[in-house]
Amino acid sequence: MAEKEPHFLLTKRFLPLFLTQFFGAFNDNLFRQAVIILITFRFAEEVSMAAPILTNLAVGLFILPFFLFSALAGQLADKYEKQNQIVWIKMWEIGLMIAGAYAFYLESLPVMIAVLAGLGLQSTFFGPIKYGILPDLMKRDELLSANALVEAATFVAILLGTVIGGMLVLSDGGLSAVSGFMIAIAVLGTLTGRMVPKTGQAAPDLTIRKNVLASTGALLKSSWSNDISRRAIIGISWIWLLGTIFIAQIPDIVKNRLGGDEQIVTLFMACFSLGIGAGSLICSKVLKGSITARLAVPGLVALAVVTTLLFFLLPSATLLSPTGVGLTEFLTDPRNMVITLLLVMIAMGAGIVIVPLYAVLQDRTDRSERSRTMAATNIVNSGFMAVGSLMAAAMIGFGLTSPQVLLITGVANLLFVPVAGRLHKSL
To answer: Which of 114, 149, 209, 227 is the most exposed place for a label (fewest CB within 10 A)?
Structure first.
């Protein structure tokens, strides 16, 4: 009897990339959350500037490189050996983490923000490689499951990095602990990156266009001209926008609608991250390796319905507690349990929609252009998230409540149903 082949998760062609991505996402969020906490509780008062302004500046500088350098990153990923680039990018991360540790030692906010921007730039160059190399490493019937595992692990890493960074940074010796932690993780990521298999150059004759604006415009035009890639990119970017808006409203809803404390905020953030991970794995099981967009339409409709249910279940008036309702008290209320469940279902819906779209994009893009297409996706993602955040802020400014913003965002899922339907029919 032939020996059963091990699950691809444990193979050398997948596990090193999986771990490298996990460690990178963990480190990004560990450092970013530590900086945000320091800004909120220490630096904002010292520099006489509102904490939200500083935190939005820091996050904005992390995202800015995706707009500016994704086109160059996609070209490099297609032209040169991806494994070599992964190693150099991870070594770059070690340097950034050492600089971050030095910034913590000096307690220098400008250096911290500079390191955060450097991490954004590093992520910009890693993203097209990560998605571009997966189809080279996996069998076609494994591609959907591989994307699901990568997405699930990424959101778990985001959650762990955010929670650990927030817990450690203000504790005794916390800055030293965070510094040691993030340098060690960067070293581990570099070691696993060295074990990613070489796949060869996808487009060795490609001429690199160094003009950032021209290359970005050409990249977007090329991706937009293809019906399948355009529709998949729109769907992926919409889900990123939805997630950004939902996560941004959670602290206000917890504090001013549910009367909860920071433990409840952490609970909701954890539920959202784990829900996306669970949805990613569920779609993999349902589709059984089939690369299709057939779950996109029901997923978007479900997101609209569940978000509407959440809106009507949230209290219409502010609930205030002198100290904030704790975790135990919060979970004894049946309505709060249902609210938490609905939030998990929304996150699962997002995971169910987005993972097959990534697989479609990878599968239907020529190998010589794949990384550039993924870079175009990153540019559009960033644009959607930035515009979505501005629109949410504008709605709040015009007097809408956070639950109303969620309702509008949820119902807006129905606007993308025709795009998803046409994508499914075109495959």
So the answer is: 227
